[in-house]
Design goal:
single chain; alpha/beta; Rossmann fold; 2 domains; five-stranded parallel beta sheet; 5 strands; 48% helix; elongated
Length: 285
């Protein structure tokens, strides 16, 4: 280095960056010094660039680690969702949810619709937004959740498991209604919902209307108690449309299965079990 940046001083800076565990700043140090020598930036700008790059690296690492802890199956974004394919969906309403105020209010977001309409995509994208905002997130399909709770109950650690699941600012429970709930599972899920009630936000995705939850959970009484809590502070979003995944092969799907796309679950009520409406096929939820 020339007189503007003596070699001994630069070596000292390198040692300091190593001690401070600032690998990105160390990586771009020489290039930043050359920019100073060439008059492209001054010392303050150089310092800002070094710290900015290091902070960006650390933030990316934090997000990556938080996404792993959230157990997201894939990383999805709202930018990657084709709103034009689902005209029934209010894009502005979804973007408003991305502001994450529902987490602060400990609300429950219900995403309802037939398979392939993007419920899990939107739930995952909102979870990613929450992670980026520094919120603790946990994502799990209902069948896996109940299996974990049942295992904890057998091992005598159910209280600890529920306590763990209530720590997350946002709990995403995916695929309600896709698989049958095992005996006792409805009660276990109720215990978790009750523990999070008015304390932590949730996103639930389901291909079944609320009127079918008694069948889904195998216990109308518990299903009513679940809905009593899950619809108290709730945002309900219905997606009525065709499967995005099957859009290129729709002609190959039998007509009776394509009719399932006309999903129209009944409007939620505060208490009780709503009457069954619409033409829904529980075998293909």
């Amino acid at each position: 280095m020339n007189g503007a940046a003596p070699s001994a001083r630069v070596d000292s800076i390198r040692r300091s960056l190593v001690s401070l565990k600032m690998p990105r700043a160390l990586e771009i140090l020489d290039a930043t010094l050359r920019r100073i020598e060439q008059g492209q930036i001054d010392g303050i700008e150089a310092l800002d660039a070094l710290l900015g790059e290091e902070l960006s690296l650390r933030e990316n690492r934090r997000i990556k680690a938080a996404l792993r802890m959230a157990r997201l199956p894939v990383v999805k974004t709202l930018a990657g969702y084709d709103f034009s394919f689902q005209p029934s969906l209010d894009k502005n309403r979804i973007l408003a949810l991305a502001g994450l105020d529902f987490i602060e209010r400990a609300e429950v977001v219900h995403l309802l619709g037939p398979p392939g309409t993007g419920k899990s995509h939107i739930a995952t994208a909102l979870a990613v937004e929450a992670v980026r905002a520094g919120k603790a997130v946990y994502f799990i399909p209902l069948a896996d959740l109940i299996a974990q709770l049942a295992k904890a109950e057998r091992e005598g650690t159910l209280r600890e498991k529920i306590r763990f699941l209530t720590r997350a600012s946002l709990l995403v429970v995916d695929e309600i209604g896709y698989l049958p709930v095992t005996p006792g599972g409805a009660n276990l899920f109720f215990q978790l919902v009750n523990a999070r009630y008015e304390k932590g936000a949730m996103i639930l995705t389901s291909n079944r209307g609320f009127a079918e939850w008694g069948e889904v959970f195998g216990d109308p009484v518990v299903a009513t108690a679940l809905l009593d809590r899950l619809l108290h502070h709730a945002v309900v979003i219905q997606i009525e449309g065709s499967s995005y995944r099957m859009r290129e092969h729709a002609a190959l799907v039998p007509e009776n299965l394509r009719s399932v796309a006309s999903f129209n679950p009944p409007a939620p009520k505060r208490r009780g079990r709503p009457p069954i409406k619409g033409n829904q096929d529980p075998d293909h939820g």
